[in-house]
Specification:
The complex is a heterodimer. Chain A is an alpha/beta fold. Helices cover 39% and strands 23% of the residues of chain A. Chain A is built from 15 helices and 14 strands. In chain A, strand 12, helix 14 and strand 13 form a beta-alpha-beta unit. In chain A, helix 7 crosses helix 8. Chain B is mostly helical. Chain B folds into two domains: 30 residues; 254 residues, MetI-like fold (Orthogonal Bundle). Helices cover 84% and strands 0% of the residues of chain B. Chain B is built from 14 helices and no strands. In chain B, helix 9 packs across helix 11 and helix 11 runs antiparallel to helix 14. The termini of chain B are far apart. The chains are: A alpha/beta, B mainly alpha. At the A-B interface, helix 4, strand 6 and helix 6 of A face helix 10 and helix 11 of B. The complex binds adenosine-5'-triphosphate and magnesium ion (MG). Adenosine-5'-triphosphate binds next to strand 2 and helix 3 of chain A.
Chain lengths: 346, 295
Amino acid sequence: MNDASTSYGIEIKGLSKIFGPNPERVVPLLQQGMSKTEILNKHQHVLGLNNINISMPAGCIQVIMGLSGSGKSTLIRHINRLIDPSVGEVLVAGVDVVKMSQTELREFRRHKTAMVFQKFGLLPHRNVLENTVFGLELQGVPRARQLEAANHWLDRVGLKGFEDRYPNQLSGGMQQRVGLARALANDAPILLMDEAFSALDPLIRVDMQTILLDLQKEIKKTIVFITHDLDEALRLGDRIAILRDGEVVQQGTGQEIVLNPADDYIMEFVRHVNRGKVLQVKTVMEPLGDPASHADGVEMAGGTLLEQAVSNLLAANKTTLIVTGDQGKPVGTVSLNQLIGAMVSP
Amino acid sequence: MDWFWEFPHLDDDYLRMLRMVIDDSFRSFTRAYGDAIQQVFEPLRYLLLYAEWVLLNSPWPVVAMVVAALAWLASRRWPIVLGTVLTLLLIGYFDMWEDTMRTVAMILVCTLLSLVVGIPIGIIMAGSNRVQSVVNPILDVMQTMPSFVYLIPVVMLLGIGRVPGLIAVVVYAIPPIIRLTNLGIRLVDKEVLEAADAYGSSRWQKLRNVQLPLAMPTIMAGINQTIMMALAMVVIASMIGVQGLGQPVLRAINNQYFTMGMFNGLAIVGIAIIFDRISQAFGKRIQKHQEHTHE
Ligand SMILES: Nc1ncnc2c1ncn2[C@@H]1O[C@H](COP(=O)(O)OP(=O)(O)OP(=O)(O)O)[C@@H](O)[C@H]1O
Ligand SMILES: [Mg+2]
């Protein structure tokens, strides 16, 4: 199953979701361009998502951000069709999840996806171990392999020794890690994580992020990750999409979003981020002019973070940085002043 | 202004006609299908006879020990086991052992039947609002209709004896188990159900892994209520030929034997308490994981 995992890209096309007693009636109005408030006030329906288009490449971590109530959980639930869309397509590896029969959907959920829930969703009458094997049990994996996988992941998320506890005997953070172990034990090519780290303390949180990144190095899963935390988004996300009121307001790489926030809403998100620890020198450099004029600069790789670059320059007592490309050839320059300017929020 | 002082009602002749038509058609229905219906319930009669036979033919110490063992398995508490055995011994000492065994057999079969029929109905009800809105009023009628009234059609159809008694008791005792199964399943946490769906549970797997276990405490409360209601019907059921503790009570009422009525009544109370404590303790024990022991 793993060798095929590289091809599980997710493509969301023209997806809208209307909550209410009679969504079919409201869909044409939406398509005529009626606004969210109008739909709510005149027709008593909630526009949960409006015309979402996101392409999530296989083997990448796609982060979804947005304020509370912006529709993140609603969106992620469409990928394994816990929620049926009002209009639109959800293509996973080219197959439209919306058109699957019940049996196909069940097989898809069992073998292709695993989900971590915002509110954990653990079975309260099962102990930690039995919760962790839940997905494998439904897959019909032999018991010995279930236990092996469960024990491995429980150990990895730091819950060794808690196998016999029941969920209500655990703290919120521990319950969340059980949910995480359950999802990882499932070994599915698609991982859906709805605020999967929100209940964790900062130390464990970083540890779990590392697990995810390590895992990504070995077996490339397609991961959809919801978070409120921009630092987490920038650390994990290959791509980030930002939702507001059920619409995508900006998507792109973390660098793009931090450097060019599309509007004030995103500016608010980006404002408090430590740009020196996030931005790379290649995103702020100027193309190379006359090579001779920068002969006394310090050479650094394009992926160097601004903060690191500044301290390197200071240590070398130079004011010019020469950015090198893949083969170590100079591709651009940045002055110390430009570096410091880029680190200050606009 | 006649209509103001006297309620305008159907014509007397018309009413008499209506009653006659309904009675006649039910009577002819009974004549036509009574035997067939009786056949359908034959297995129940055997089950009841068998349960009675087992309880009556086992030596009393064996029965007492089995009951004690069950009490222990269900509750794991010595006071309950002790109380159970003591009650049984007292009942036997006052020479009500045989009637008690008959009543216990009846209650067991009634409860079993109620569960077998009621739990699936409750499950179906929980899955569909439309079914719920149809079944609920029927349950209301079953629970509020005076039990004597529905003894009439049962007796017309099946005559007098154990099976009609059994059916009358089940009709009276089944609503709580249906209602509480329905309620228990509807109260199951939506997040947990979603998780079961997300990992690809089939309908049956969801029922078995999530809905029934999580609804179990509520269902146990339903079982407990069903047993209590079945016991409450013992005397009424004895009016149509169900043997057991109800019959001496009935005789005592007819002949004003105060002490006899009292003893048998107390015996019914005794087994009610036994059933109640055991089933409640069992219910509590299986939901141990629900207790908040977070330290
Ligand atoms: N079943 C529903 N019926 C009506 N409205 C709904 C329903 N589910 C969600 N909504 C609405 O859709 C919007 C988005 O909800 P959603 O749970 O996706 O937000 P979220 O971005 O995950 O928020 P949070 O960060 O708090 O988890 C909310 O305004 C919510 O009221
Ligand atoms: Mg959410």
